[in-house]
Amino acid sequence: MNRLAVLEILKRHITNEIVVGTYSSGFDWASISERPLDYYAVGAMGLGSSHGLGLALARPERKIVVLDGDGGLLMNLGTLVTIGKVAPKNLLHFVFQNNVYEANGGHPIPNREVDFPAIARGANIRNVARVSDIADFEKNIASWMTIDGPTFVCLDVEQGPPGRKDWTDMYKPARRAALREALASGA
Fold first, then answer.
1. CATH number of 3-172
2. What average pLDDT does this structure show over 43-68?
3. What is the 3-state secondary structure (H, E, C) of 43-70?
4. Using one digit for the tens of pLDDT, what is the confidence trace for 101-151?
5. What's the DSSP call for residue 98?
6. What's the CA gap between 44 and 57, in Å, rounded?
């Protein structure tokens, strides 16, 4: 699947959720979404799931959608155990698996046979799925957005285009200020 095509489908289902994006997934999300409730984890490779967990615990009234990469998750697998234990009902964690550290030059992850859904199940995460077909993603997205979580969905995607990305727009201070204002106002 193409990650940007998946995100375009997701965007149609986003209303008042906080979307947490990191690195390549975050960069792609920023290219199609300009919302105050988009949160980008600055310099936090591997911590998207931790930031999402913190937001889910702090804001239980709001769905938190994490856009994570497989390389990032590998850097912080322990967060799945914590998510499984505290079981936030409002956490939806998408992991885009393309088997490379895309943001760092496309180097392969150490084990391309890693089974992230099995790890999530072993961590006692309530809802776990793997999707390799865009039609299956489109068929299930509404359910994932509404069911009580935590929910973990591994998405098999192709590697994005190589090249340098300009991260300054995604990480601009105005985005953080807009998020704080939106949360303070209850938007």
1. 3.40.50.970
2. 93
3. CCCCCHHHHHHHHHHHCCCCCEEEEEEH
4. 777 666 677 878 899 999 999 999 999 999 999 999 999 999 999 999 999
5. -
6. 19
The C-alpha atoms of residue 15 and residue 2 are separated, in whole angstroms, by 23
CB 153 within 8 A of CB 144: yes
Question: Do the beta carbons of residue 134 and residue 5 sit within 8 Å?
Answer: yes
Q: Cβ of 104: how many Cβ atoms within 10 Å?
A: 11
Rounded Cα distance between 138 and 123, Å, is 26
* Statement: residue 44 has pLDDT above 90: no
The answer for residues whose C-beta is within 8 angstroms of residue 60's C-beta and 6 or more apart is 88, 89, 90
pLDDT for 187 equals 67
Query: How is residue 64 written in tokens?
Result: 């938190």
Give me the mean pLDDT over the 155-183 stretch: 82
Name the strands in the sheet holding 151-156, side by side, starting at the edge strand that comes first in the sequence. Answer: 38-40, 18-21, 64-69, 91-97, 151-156, 127-131
